[in-house]
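Thread title: Can someone regenerate the structure for this chain?

I was given the following input by a collaborator and told the matching structure tokens would be attached. They weren't. Posting the sequence so someone can regenerate them.
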Amino acid sequence: MGVTQMTDDLVARTETDPETLTDGFHLLIDALKLNGVETIYNVPGIPITDLGRYAQAQGMRVLSFRHEQHAGYAAAAAGFLTKKPGVCMTVSAPGFLNGLTALAHATTNCWPMILISGSSEREVVDLQRGDYEEMDQLAIARPHAKAAYRILHAEDIGLGVARAVRAALTGRPGGVYLDVPGALLGQVMDEVEGSKSLIKVVDPSPASVPSPEAVDRALDVMKNAKKPLIIIGKGAAYAQADEKVKELVETLGFPYLPMSMAKGLLPDTHPQCASAARSLVLKESDCVFLIGARLNWLLSHGEGKAWGEKGAKQFVQIDIEPNEMDSNQPIAAPLIGDIGSCAGALLEKIRGNWEKPSEDWTGAVRSKVEANIERMAPRLKNNNSPMDYQGSLGVIKDLIAENPDTVLVNEGANALDQCRSIVDIHKPRKRLDVGTWGIMGVGMGSAIAAAVETGDQVLAVEGDSAFGFCGMEIETVCRYNLPVCIVIMNNNGIYRGDGENWSGGEDPSTTVFVKDSKYELMMQAFGGVGVTADNPDELRQAIKEAFASRKPTLINAIIAEDAGKESGNIGNLNPSSVVAQNRYPQAKNI
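Best answer:
Regenerated them for you:
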């Protein structure tokens, strides 16, 4: 029997025997629930409005956002935190495109996420007949996702969801797009047959064990190093092999640098942590062991002045993706496998049989760390009004130390760079930020996901520019009464608030905002707590009250306009112009 005839026959039975039927709505919900999906982040609208209602009625948590991009960022962050695909659901065309940014973000960061979008029917799209929000969404999604699938028939929903879940999790995780034409959701079929069509994915991310030869090769390289260094990336945090990674680092005895979202895998206060001596260890090390980190732009591709003499280092790298090796530097000892398996294999070989690096190296690194921390300490204790970044972040550093289960969400330019270097993280996966692409606007989506998925207090430290990308989601925070405290580092502009219009005209500078904006009133408008802090003492008190109450809170932290610098710590990526510097005297001060 053809699909159309079968559907027609089943529809005819609904009046006399409706209890024996199911439909695309409920099959999709059942398939997701069968595979452990408990939460959906979405923006309702045609054709998925009822899908969200039915999911909620079936016991799933469905959180509705004000913009699809932020629902997607929440799903991406959920994937990082849980090792399960975070699910975002959007409407067709414009809604899909908004969610696609977040899907690409998840894929780039290697986090499991599934974007489910309603779409127009194929026969209309393919002939370009001008349907409502007509778009070939599957073709558009493919370059930005790890995989992309379309489901056309109700009996294939179980298969489509299973393919999406496995693709999101197997090997290197990533984002998957699932295209759901509106008519699919209304298709009906026999309930028993529908139940049989669902698939529970078994072992979607199996262990990937490195070869014994690869383990021996890696240990030989590291054994011969005089000045070894470990770099821990967010892949290691995602892996949740926390105890194995900690034991490996401590057994090897190497100084280590955590990338920003790997902070806390071992506490930033650990004696081997070399974050405060980053320049020294990058330049002087002769062997670098990468654990879940990639030699991309965030590490200057492993070359340049910061890395010292060209060719003077050997690299050992753990990654589950073989093609990652040699992408920027020759990898002397690749370890292909998941981080838990690789760490376990190394530990089996070296337990009780490993000589740690000499005190000449580790002592020099520790001395540099302690000297830099001591030099910075007084700047973190000032009580200036208006605040600078050091005084305000010194407060946050202390409060995170007192409340180590707090999830710190962080984005901006100066607010991001300085927070990353100043504020210590003490537990794994307690820091969420802009990720590999450095995307602005992830803050509120990440904060909402962190609160929902962990139940812990969330502290979102936002530059005023970054907050502008996602600020309306504070209504979402208030609507769901989430324990999120937002601190806006308000210096009245992008980078700095004292920019000039180089033409001398009346328009403000391109990097300047409305002076003395009262962001706290936005939070008050939605029923949350909104306050202003003019100095570190006030900031400390406001955050303490937010933590104690667990109420949605926004603190407008007044930062001196001239406290920041152009582009934070990546000003070197701004193209410079000799012509501009000669023509505009102001350019010399950027």
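The radius of gyration is 26 Å.
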